[in-house]
């Protein structure tokens, strides 16, 4: 029973992170911390690193905090929660930074219906260069309209 509960918490955390990514992007990145996110929409820099990458540190700190709570303070759910956040972060990095933005030249030939839908949704978001009116979608599950054949 403990293993099943652990797995459920891990999966629930991963799924909640999709909501958290959407919420953070819409209300924090395109809100009061636009100054950090702006360079993701305006490529006016030559560096591989963007100020936008600092958002990764926040979620990494939360994940590490969960691991510390599990290891040192007896918070048993800290391990599946921390791993769920970590797994989402790895998935986000693979999909957003590597697959969509091609920060590393991998997955260039992926051209199935799901890959096209993810790219289409992200392209719609990036057509807005300003803080306002930027449509925000979930990274893994954008609206179904992006998965229609064109």
Automatic annotation (TrEMBL):
GO terms for molecular function: beta-carotene 3-hydroxylase activity; iron ion binding. It holds the Pfam family FA_hydroxylase. InterPro entries: BETA-OHASE-like, Fatty_acid_hydroxylase. The chain crosses the membrane at residues 6-24, 54-73, 79-100. Residues 11-141 form the Fatty acid hydroxylase domain. One of its GO terms (biological process) is xanthophyll biosynthetic process. Keywords: Carotenoid biosynthesis, Membrane, Oxidoreductase, Transmembrane, Transmembrane helix. Belongs to the sterol desaturase family. This is Beta-carotene hydroxylase.
């Amino acid at each position: 029973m403990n293993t099943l509960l652990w797995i459920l918490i891990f999966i629930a955390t991963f799924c909640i992170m999709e909501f958290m990514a959407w919420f953070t992007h819409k209300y924090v990145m395109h809100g009061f911390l636009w100054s950090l996110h702006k360079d993701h929409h305006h490529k006016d820099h030559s560096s591989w690193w963007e100020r936008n990458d600092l958002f990764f540190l926040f979620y990494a700190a939360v994940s590490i905090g969960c691991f510390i709570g599990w290891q040192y303070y007896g918070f048993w759910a800290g391990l599946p929660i921390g791993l769920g956040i970590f797994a989402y972060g790895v998935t986000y990095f693979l999909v957003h930074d590597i697959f969509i933005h091609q920060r590393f030249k991998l997955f260039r030939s992926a051209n199935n219906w799901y890959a096209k839908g993810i790219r289409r949704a992200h392209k719609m978001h990036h057509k807005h260069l300003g803080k306002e009116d930027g449509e925000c979608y979930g990274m893994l599950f954008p609206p179904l309209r992006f998965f229609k054949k064109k």
